[in-house]
Write a structure and sequence with these properties.
Largest sheet: none
Number of domains: 1
Order of helices and strands: HHHHHHHH
Low-confidence stretches: none
Shape: globular
Mean pLDDT: 91
Length: about 160
């Protein structure tokens, strides 16, 4: 059986890459109004899935860290504690803000370059939540740079 935490994280990463990669495609390759309107619907859907799966990831991570059932974790404020008192939570909050900003920027075609920046930030900040983001020193910076390039390239490729 698949661990729900792994499943939520996998869905989140896939939805994030689809949304951000599609923004990259529209801005850099095919900025055609009719295509942009259709892709915006897919991007909004992917952002919705990313936001929901990100929330599930946060809740499941809190339950795992507190070693309590999910319902008990929610009722005792575990997700709020993780969101406000951990580096993961801070980054998750920033990524949520970027996802919401990206969704809003899609409504205004002249802001397509800002949408691309928001999409890149949404993807790149994910690198800070893993091992590379937690490794100190030069080795950590090299790992983080590698992670960021990998995440951005994989998302752009998917788009």
């Amino acid at each position: 059986m698949i661990d729900p935490l792994i499943l939520a994280r996998g869905i989140h990463i896939a939805a994030m890459a689809l949304a951000s990669g599609s923004v990259c495609f529209v801005v850099l390759i095919a900025d055609i109004p009719a295509l942009r309107r259709r892709l915006n619907l897919m991007i909004w859907f992917a952002l919705g899935v990313a936001i929901l799966s990100g929330a599930a990831w946060l809740v499941l991570l809190a339950a795992d860290l507190m070693d309590t059932p999910v319902l008990d974790t929610i009722l005792n404020g575990g997700p709020w504690t993780v969101l406000t008192e951990t580096r993961f939570g801070l980054i998750a909050g920033l990524r949520l803000a970027l996802a919401l900003a990206l969704a809003a920027l899609l409504l205004w075609a002249p802001a397509r370059w800002l949408a691309l920046v928001a999409a890149a930030g949404f993807v790149a900040l994910l690198g800070l939540t893993g091992h590379a983001g937690a490794t100190p020193g030069l080795a950590g910076r090299l790992l983080l740079a590698s992670d960021l390039v990998h995440l951005l390239a994989a998302s752009a490729w998917l788009g």
